[in-house]
């Protein structure tokens, strides 16, 4: 079967050009879909299960990296994880991270020679593919390296200020059991109640102490001392039981490595 | 936001002692040179009376002059130190701009005048072996002579040294202001020649050359005039509002090629307002903000409208987008530099008669509205 690819690029001319250049350099490659934002990139990748993904870094909705994270967290076993190629116009910081993690990337404007070299690498990788589980594990390790490499640390937050009408509730961070992303908000859950704050998890994360608050899923950050037990499931995910809350949380495969016996 | 460039001293000490010490240290070359000249002049004046040899006059002149000066400086430092202690004892924050700073000059001068001559005469007597009359002996003509010369010398020295000091601090302030202006200019250039924007535009241009050479040429023309305007824009002169709209048009045309159908543009400039003078590229940072933080990260994209109209005696310019709004997890959180920069230019040009207002979600379409109001010429 011919390999299939997914292109995620928000600038229509650049998407069309990448598609036509791929058609010229790699005629057997079938472009399964071309999408213009990060959310669709993840959903389409999960639905279409292509062999190769070209993701622009800066896209509306979610960045290419966040799309890859969502894919990796929700990828089901069986089909091998796609080969990822990130595309960026200028992002010094990201490029260093890509080089460090040996992640394939292209720099815009993409010239024919560089794309041809990339295609050769992809073809070779497809020919000698590791079994699906090992491939996924290798990608997870790369993504961990990329995601761990976050931007400079912002000042630490001591108190969460949650507004409800005219009242602002002040919640000390140490009282927070976990944070959960909910669309454009973040739910702040304490033992007694929950609050909504108008802030994305992405903005909140750098302001939290990483030793105390662990990200266990792209949408969940939990205070480590509030986790009472962690159970590894067959799917590779981990179910977390909490002190002070009845519900359980799920740690994705990307963060499952945080939970192992000493 | 500070509206004036901060008066950055090279090193800004925060205590009175620090300020006084810093002043003396910074200007010691000029003031010493001046004191030497003053003492030589006084010696020459004394010499004209032919009381003693020139060498003796020089010794007395230098001893008295430098004693006055030394005591004066020492007293000034001591007063500043006392001021710092007094402030600390009263639990006040240390201040480099307190009373000791300027009022301390007078008691210090008085002390120098009172004790300087007697100290100087004693030293000079030791060197020359002569015996001067006691300075308390007011009947002695030589005493009166010494006191008058010391007084005149002290006042001339005070006048000259304070001139030297204010000159040097004015120069330091001018240098700081110049440095600040250069930094602002650099940051402005960096924010406008944003590499991500530039390389993406070039990538689009590269594709367009193969697809549609004529359109590529138009895009290149837009890029050239955008770059020319950004690199050469004078920060002070004014240009017509029509030119301002053309530059915004260049940038939005480039963004239009990049974003395709996700970007809708509305430029509304009534013909009667075309010639009104405005500061060059005043609206550019606002338009770039609307794109970078409003529409580019917004999945559906949206519309940007730039309008001008007159309201009473005011020119109202507005930049409005229907994008993702002010703080909903922007992919690239802003630094606030663009807004601060526009506000600062408005204040510099028109003071409180100009304003910039940011309105989140002005209506059901969401997004952000920025309104700039400035007086009509």
Plain-language structure description:
The complex is a heterodimer of chains A (262) and B (377). By secondary structure, chain A is of the alpha/beta class. Chain A contains seven helices and 15 strands. In chain A, helix 2 (38-48) runs parallel beside helix 3. The longest helix of chain A has 17 residues, at 132-148. Chain B has a five-stranded mixed beta sheet with strand order 2-4-5-7-6, covered by helices on one side. Chain B has a two-stranded antiparallel sheet with strand order 1-3. Chain B is α+β, with helices and mostly antiparallel strands and 377 residues long. The two termini of chain B are 26 Å apart. The radius of gyration of chain B is 33 Å and the shape is elongated. Mean pLDDT of chain B is 82; it is low at 1-11 and 328-332. Chain B has helices at residues 16-26, 28-48, 54-89, 99-103, 105-128, 141-192, 195-211, 213-232, 241-259, 284-295, 337-350; strands at 239-240, 263-268, 277-278, 302-311, 314-321, 355-360, 368-375. Chain A binds chain B through residues 10-14, 16-17, 36-37, 39, 58, 60-61, 63, 89-91, 108-110, 184, 198-200, 202-203, and chain B through 195-196, 198-200, 202-204, 206-208, 210-211, 257-262, 296-299, 301, 327-329, 331-333.
Blueprint (SSEs and pairs):
The complex is a heterodimer of chains A (262) and B (377).
Chain A: E1 4-8, H1 12-25, E2 30-35, H2 38-48, E3 52-56, H3 64-74, E4 83-88, H4 92-101, E5 104-107, H5 112-127, H6 132-148, E6 159-164, E7 167-172, E8 176-182, E9 185-190, E10 194-197, H7 201-204, E11 213-217, E12 220-223, E13 227-232, E14 238-242, E15 248-251
Parallel strand pairs in A: 1-2, 1-3, 3-4, 4-5
Antiparallel strand pairs in A: 6-7, 8-9, 8-12, 9-10, 11-12, 13-14, 14-15
Helix pairs in contact in A: 2-3, 3-6, 4-6
Chain B: H1 16-26, H2 28-48, H3 54-89, H4 99-103, H5 105-128, H6 141-192, H7 195-211, H8 213-232, E1 239-240, H9 241-259, E2 263-268, E3 277-278, H10 284-295, E4 302-311, E5 314-321, H11 337-350, E6 355-360, E7 368-375
Parallel strand pairs in B: 2-4
Antiparallel strand pairs in B: 1-3, 4-5, 5-7, 6-7
